[in-house]
Amino acid sequence: xxxxxxxxxxxxxxxxxxxxxxxxxxxxxxxxxxxxxxxxxxxxxxxxxxxxxxxxxxxxxxxxxxxxxxxxxxxxxxxxxxxxxxxxxxxxxxxxxxxxxxxxxxxxxxxxxxxxxxxxxxxxxxxxxxxxxxxxxxxxxxxxxxxxxxxxxxxxxxxxxxxxxxxxxxxxxxxxxxxxxxxxxxxxxxxxxxxxxxxxxxxxxxxxxxxxxxxxxxxxxxxxxxxxxxxxxxxxxxxxxxxxxxxxxxxxxxxxxxxxxxxxxxxxxxxxx
Length: 273
Known about the structure:
By secondary structure, the protein is of the alpha/beta class. It is 34% helix and 18% strand. It has a single domain, classed as Aldolase class I (TIM Barrel), CATH 3.20.20. The mean pLDDT is 92.
């Protein structure tokens, strides 16, 4: 498997973590969340990447919150990196955004609905940044090799994939854990997006629902089957979050969860020897 600069296990074999708010709502909230998570991850030897979308392009309704402004949000992401020393990841939605976002972040993320968009994947690859591709909710794990190949064949070997659940009817998602080893056979790190996989989309209200009480269940299962990393969205008060509050993890619950997951990872690693 390719060793990636930011998305690799620690020296002790612990998983890596991408975590932060769904969207950058402001400077103070971003710095607060990053400065809370970073020391926890250092203590537990979890390689950490701060996650925050500078813009949410895929919204259910016209009046849904999309962001505070592209450059303002990107500058906040850059400040998080400077202040905490933690790498940062954000989503891009079009080929034109790739070069702009790459000036501010370490990792470019391709949203699941856009994972087959060839021009977007090529543009992300051409920046030279690490590219994290989310598997489409409609896509078989085996088919992700074609998305990976688009990055590799564009001259960029820095690529990872993320499973964020598969459509289970119109209003639910399910994680098919068989897909983790299948995608790992493609030679790239595989991440499980714990919180988005618990979304309940297509609600009549136009606001996506979720099952946050099952976050630990999905996280434990992901570690048990050998996922290389985890992705989680978190917020001080998910009930006031401007996007995806229904499936986010409350920030004060993150540390004890990571402690338990680290212990589980140690147990799983012991079976390999």
